[in-house]
Structures are given as structure tokens and as C-alpha cells.
Design goal:
alpha/beta, Rossmann fold, 38% helix
Length: 728
């Protein structure tokens, strides 16, 4: 076992007026000055967890009475932050309306306004609140924001054009595709000179941007860039016992035990090998501690959360609460009342709650730092345990017993955790065609002069965002050929914010709730039965009728859920794989991975096998497959099927070959009883294709080539492109 002694983090407070009646930090003052100014900007606030990033934008937005869009990665965060806005708006005298825009609230407003399109609902809702008050703060998720910007609703929403300020929270947690899409659309809105678009202030709340991301903020975006935590004075310090006068703690000193567990296997270690230590950690800790100290346990898999929470509930005389995708109801009440909380990424970011001790799985760098940050705003020394892969634990053992500042810890974690491979070519291989397709949709029905202006400015923007800093040289004709060479259904899918996923609508009979959830988890671990939609509607209580109607079009199955099955002794559930003749034909027709490109495939099926005869079957799997194969009949847009990309190797082999993260999802393919291939879905399919092409045709560290195009070197080290036919 290794123990790291971590210093706390404290920020200097300044004796300056601040809306929320406390002495502000330097980053809050800096962002407030930008918001109050007349000039446009793009700012990044990377202050530490618990350092008041929300207040840094909310205080000046309220003071200046600025209509603001705040974008959060999850609906849970949207709701949580709405409550913060509601609590803060009493600090000003004018009327402030907080619009919580999610799929559920839009469904409610559709009924109220008697409208059918969510786009029309957003506009009507905004107009109504604007008439009733002085300021509107609209809180939503990236999916809805992108749909507004790209006119993807049946009736286009224009409300977003009326907001001068946009804030994006947790930007660093988005994937490469999602970051590219949001950054480009915000830059486009900032640059558009149409009188009705007011956006000129953009703030990203994020971890410290890496070199490439900072280059994009500073050089790709048209607005002047500011990193608000960059100061000439000492504004952040480490402390071990006393933060000192004028300094406020945002992270406590921590004694961190580092232990080993395999990825998705922390629950096995806790329950099979260290149960007594786990129970002791969750109970009263010594003379100085009190039995009301609150403990959080943050794991990776939902199956782990269930096993640990059930065992602790059985063994402890304390209030044990579980929060995850299957137990998300009454989250606020659970966070207020728990004594021991067992959760996963559902509480990893954003949502505030107070704890005294922490146990967490840290199987990648981001999760390690994010979960450790759940211990916050205390000056007393706290206790924590972290479970990491053996290789990471061995490297951290070199620091056993050492005192480390948080900045030193960041450096250590960056050094010992392998950085998952990122596709260097994704920006120009997919994001550039994505935005060209977006430009094409913008110029429909426009005059010739407007078409020319939009096209020229858009191509320059594409160059800045996705081609600068690479060896790729493209003119407007190259861009058009790149787009034309891609599968039109893939281009359609790229217009949405997130990639494809396969979900079922679930009636959880153990808790009498209805929700959507990942189909693969249900097939691996769930005691489930799949039924037709009309049978599902008959089974579920009437109060869920509207929810079923709202979600039915977007799910790939309907099932009842009666908890989880008993797994094997090793903790494994059923095996799930893709199959089907169309998938077989694709692999046979294009046997070389680099000859294939991602496509939207219809007619895929799922097969489920039991690794042990003790595992129950999945009733009515044929009902699920019938619906999955009819996906094209109900998928939004003009496409259908699943956006996917197969490679001719098993998932474990592909992950090792392309140095992929443990959290990169690849699904087994089983054809004619053989299991020698794997499938990536949605955005992961695009990333995997980039890896394959970079390894097969291009140096992995160089950004040359283009999907659908064949790279040809010409004079003066420039590059031109022609329609692609594989040279092999």
C-alpha cells in the first residue's frame, strides 16, 4: 500500500465588492471585468474544483442583466445549476427567469403552448419569459443547443440569437468531436454579422486546456482570448494545517491511500478481499471523528455500485444511498440525507455535496483528479482511498510517504497514467466535412451574394479550426470533394452533437419507474424481458403514458426489469455480440480494415450467449432484434440504422493494437459461430477509423490524408487531394 500526503489548496480573497456578499477570488474579478466591458471575448476559467467557477459568470451576468445561455453536459447538472440560479437571483432587484430546457421540460411546455415542435416551444417560452421579466438565463445541454444552432428542429428555433453571453461548463470532458462542434458553432455565431445575432461573450469553464486546445481558443476563434486564472500575482497556495488569513480553502489536505484493483473490478476487491477494511472506513473513525461523518464511494460500473451499496446497506447501521443511472430519482434528497453514498460518474462532476471521507476508483487520469476533487472546501485533513491498476500503483509507490502539492500531484498523475491515444486526423477528416455540410444547409434559399459570403467565411473558419497546425492544404474545391466522397448518412449523423447509442425504455418493476438505459448493460446483467410497444404500454402505470410516448421513437427496445441476475463467480454476466447477414457481407466484401469507411448500417442484430449455464436466458430477444432492424423507420433525419465501423480483430486485440482506453467501447461480432471481429458505434466508429487509417496509410504522428480522398504530394511541399480509390 502507498500513502500520499496531499496539501490542500487555498485561494486569495480580495477586498472588493462582489454581488454574492463575500470577498471574491482573482479569477472571479477577471471574468467579471470582461463581462462588464464593451468588447467581445472568449474566456477560459480553469480555477480548481470548488473555486467558484459558477459564481464567476453568474454574478456579472446578473449585475449586467445579460440574457445568458449556460450549457451543461448532463440534464442532472442543468437541474442542479438551475437551483443555483434561482437561489442567486434574489441578489438583484430586477426580474430574472431561469429556463431549464431539457427534453422533459420541453414536453411539458408543448402541452402548455399547444405546439408540436420543440423549436417552436423554445421560442415561445423565451418570448413569454422575456415579456414577464427583465433577464432570461437559459440552462440546457449541448444536444439542444446544437439543434438550435443547426435548425434541426421541425420548426427552427431563433431564440438563441438573442443571447449575448454563452457559458459552457465542463468543456474538457467532451470528446474531440463534441468539442470541435461546439467551438465551431460558437465561433460562427460570434462572427455572424446579421443584426439579430447578439453573441459576443463566450466563457468556457474547464480544466486547464492542453496545448492544442489553447491554440484553438487563441488562434481559431475570432474573439480575443483570455485565460482568467493567468495572473502576475500569487493567487493560489498550498497548505497543510492552516490556510492563513485572507485565504479560503477550496480543497483540503488529504492522506490518500493507493491500492490496486482492475478496471471495473474495484467492487470485487472491496467485497471479496477487503470487506472489513471497507466497513471500518464507512464507520466511525477514531476518537476525533464523529459517527455523522459522511462517506462517498465512487466506482465505475453500475453493477459495481449495486453490489457494494447492497452489501453496505446490509452490514452498516448507517443511511446508505445509491445514485446511478438506475437510481437517479430524488437525487437532491439523497445527497442531503446520506451517511454513506455509493455512486459512479453520476456524481463525478458539478453537483455539490459535502463529504468527510472518500473512496474511489481512479482508472484514468481524468477520473482520478475529478473524483478526488469531491473532497472540497475544508481546512481539516481528510482521509481517502483510491483503487488504480497495478501498473499505476507500482509507479505511485515511488512517492510513498511524500508530501505533495496539488500541482505536483497533477504532474505525477500526468506522468504515471498512460495518455489514451487520440486520433490526430479527426478534425480535418470528419469535423471539416461536418461543418461544410452545415454551411450548405445555411445557404439554402439565400441570395447569391449571401451564399458567397457565408461560404467564404465558413471555409476560412474551417481552415482555422481544423487545418491550421497540420500539413494539410485545402482549397474550397478540396473541401467539397471531401464532403461528396463521404457517405451522406454519416454526414447527416455528424450534424448532431453526440454519436449513436443503443438504448431501451425500461420499466423497473423493483422501483416502479420508467427510464431509458443502455441496452448492453441490460442484456449483460439485467433480469429483463423484451416486449412489443403496445404490451409495454399496457404493463406500465398510466402516469408514465406521456413519458413512453415521448421516448418511444428513439429507443431500440422495450423491456421490464426485475433487478440483476446472479453473475458467475468471477462477476461476469452474459456475453453480448452483434451479428447479421449485412454485417457479414460488409466484412467479406471489404476484408481489409483500411478499405472500409464508417457507414450507417441497417439490419444489425444482437445475440446473447450464457458463459455459464447458471445464467438465465433473455426472453423475447427476437422482439428486440425486430425493432433494432426497423431502426431506419423511426430514426430522426433521413438516415437509419447504426453508424458503425468494424475491425477484423477481437475487442481486446483492437484496444491493444490502437492503444485505446479501457473506456473505449468495442462490441464483439459473432458470425457463423466465429468471434474474430469487433464493432465501434457512433463517434467511436469515427475515432477508430482515424486510428486505422493513420496506422495503415499515414505516420501516426502526422496529420496528413483525408477521408474519402487520396493524399498526393505536389510541388513546394503542398498537398492536393483527389477522389479516393485505395492505392492497395
Amino acid at each position: 500500500m502507498t500513502t500520499l500526503h496531499l496539501d490542500g489548496v487555498t485561494l486569495r480573497q480580495h477586498d472588493e465588492p462582489f454581488l454574492f456578499d463575500y470577498e471574491p477570488y482573482a479569477h472571479q474579478i477577471a471574468l467579471a471585468d470582461l463581462v462588464r466591458g464593451d468588447n467581445g471575448f472568449v474566456a477560459v476559467n480553469d480555477s480548481p474544483t470548488g473555486g467558484g467557477k459558477t459564481s464567476s459568470w453568474l454574478a456579472p451576468a446578473l449585475e449586467e442583466c445579460l440574457d445568458t445561455i449556460a450549457i451543461y453536459p448532463t440534464n442532472a447538472l442543468v437541474i442542479d445549476q438551475t437551483e443555483q440560479v434561482e437561489a442567486a437571483k434574489d441578489a438583484v432587484e430586477h426580474e430574472v427567469s431561469a429556463l431549464t430546457v431539457t427534453s422533459e421540460t420541453l414536453a411539458e411546455k408543448r402541452q402548455k403552448f399547444s405546439l408540436q415542435s420543440n423549436g417552436a416551444v423554445i421560442d415561445e417560452w423565451y418570448r413569454a419569459e422575456s415579456r414577464a421579466g427583465n433577464q432570461v438565463i437559459l440552462l440546457t445541454n449541448p444536444d439542444i443547443f446544437v439543434m438550435m444552432c443547426r435548425d434541426l428542429y421541425r420548426n427552427a428555433s431563433r431564440a438563441y440569437k438573442r443571447f449575448p453571453f454563452v457559458v459552457v461548463d465542463e468543456f474538457h470532458r467532451a470528446g474531440r468531436k463534441e468539442q470541435n462542434t461546439l467551438r465551431y458553432l460558437l465561433d460562427e455565431a460570434y462572427e455572424r454579422n446579421e443584426r439579430q445575432i447578439r453573441l459576443n461573450k463566450i466563457a468556457f469553464l474547464s480544466a486547464t486546456p492542453d496545448e492544442q486546445q489553447e491554440r484553438r481558443f487563441e488562434h481559431a476563434m475570432a474573439a480575443p482570448y483570455s485565460l482568467v486564472t493567468e495572473t502576475e500575482t500569487d493567487e493560489q497556495r498550498a497548505f497543510s494545517t492552516n490556510p492563513g488569513s485572507g485565504w479560503k480553502p477550496v480543497m483540503p489536505p488529504v492522506d490518500l491511500e493507493v491500492r490496486t484493483a482492475p478496471t471495473f473490478g474495484t467492487a470485487d476487491v472491496l467485497l471479496d478481499d477487503e470487506l472489513d477494511a471497507l466497513l471500518s472506513f464507512c464507520r466511525e473513525q477514531g476518537v476525533e471523528s464523529s459517527s455523522d461523518e459522511r462517506v462517498a464511494i465512487i466506482l465505475d460500473g453500475i453493477h459495481e455500485v449495486q453490489r457494494v451499496s447492497e452489501r453496505l446497506d446490509l452490514e452498516l447501521d448507517r443511511r446508505v444511498e445509491r445514485i446511478d443511472g438506475f437510481h437517479s430519482e430524488n437525487k437532491k434528497e439523497k445527497l442531503e440525507s446520506f451517511e454513506v453514498l455509493v455512486s459512479n460518474s453520476a456524481v463525478e462532476v458539478g453537483i455539490d455535496f459535502d463529504i468527510d471521507r472518500l473512496l474511489f476508483a481512479g482508472h484514468n487520469r481524468a477520473s482520478f483528479l475529478q473524483r478526488l476533487g469531491r473532497l472540497r472546501s475544508k481546512s481539516k485533513r481528510c482521509q481517502a482511498k483510491c483503487y488504480v491498476p497495478r501498473k499505476i500503483a507500482n509507479e505511485l509507490a515511488d512517492y510513498d510517504g511524500q508530501e505533495l502539492t496539488r500541482s505536483a500531484l497533477d504532474s505525477v498523475i500526468e506522468k504515471v497514467y498512460p495518455e489514451p491515444r487520440k486520433p490526430t486526423s479527426f478534425g480535418w477528416r470528419y469535423s471539416a466535412p461536418e461543418e461544410l455540410k452545415h454551411i450548405d444547409s445555411r445557404i439554402q434559399n439565400a441570395t447569391q451574394d449571401v451564399q458567397k459570403r457565408i461560404t467564404i467565411s465558413g471555409e476560412k473558419r474551417i481552415q482555422r479550426h481544423f487545418l491550421d497546425g497540420t500539413d494539410v492544404r485545402m482549397d474550397s474545391d478540396d473541401l467539397k470533394r471531401a464532403t461528396e466522397a463521404m457517405d451522406w448518412q454519416v454526414l447527416d449523423d455528424l450534424q448532431w452533437y453526440r454519436g449513436d447509442s443503443i438504448q431501451a425504455l425500461v420499466y423497473d418493476q423493483t422501483e416502479n419507474t420508467v427510464r431509458t438505459y443502455d441496452l448492453f448493460y441490460l442484456l449483460r446483467y439485467g433480469d429483463v424481458e423484451f416486449v412489443e410497444r403496445d404490451e409495454f404500454e399496457r404493463i406500465v402505470p398510466d402516469k408514465y403514458d406521456e413519458k413512453v410516448a415521448r421516448n418511444a421513437r428513439y429507443v431500440d427496445g422495450f423491456c421490464t426489469y426485475d433487478g440483476t441476475i446472479e453473475t458467475t463467480d468471477e462477476g461476469w454476466g452474459r456475453s453480448v455480440a452483434f451479428t447479421g447477414p449485412r454485417l457479414n457481407d460488409w466484412l467479406e466484401d471489404k476484408p481489409i480494415d483500411s478499405n472500409r469507411t464508417p457507414r450507417v448500417l441497417e439490419g444489425t442484430k444482437l445475440t446473447v450467449s450464457r458463459d455459464s449455464n447458471d445464467l438465465p436466458r433473455v426472453p423475447s430477444l427476437s422482439v428486440l432484434n425486430d425493432r433494432l432492424q426497423s431502426r431506419c423507420e423511426r430514426t430522426p433525419g433521413t438516415g437509419g440504422g447504426l453508424l458503425c465501423y468494424p475491425v477484423s480483430m477481437r475487442p481486446t486485440v483492437a484496444k491493444e493494437r490502437y492503444d485505446l482506453s479501457e473506456f473505449f467501447f468495442l462490441y464483439q461480432i459473432t458470425l457463423q459461430g466465429e468471434s474474430g471481429a469487433s464493432l465501434a458505434l457512433g463517434t467511436d466508429a469515427l475515432y477508430l477509423h482515424c486510428h486505422v487509417m493513420e496506422d495503415d496509410n499515414e505516420p501516426s504522428t502526422d496529420e496528413n490524408g483525408l477521408i474519402g480522398l487520396w493524399l498526393v504530394r505536389v510541388v513546394n511541399d503542398k498537398y492536393k487531394f483527389q477522389a479516393w480509390s485505395h492505392p492497395g
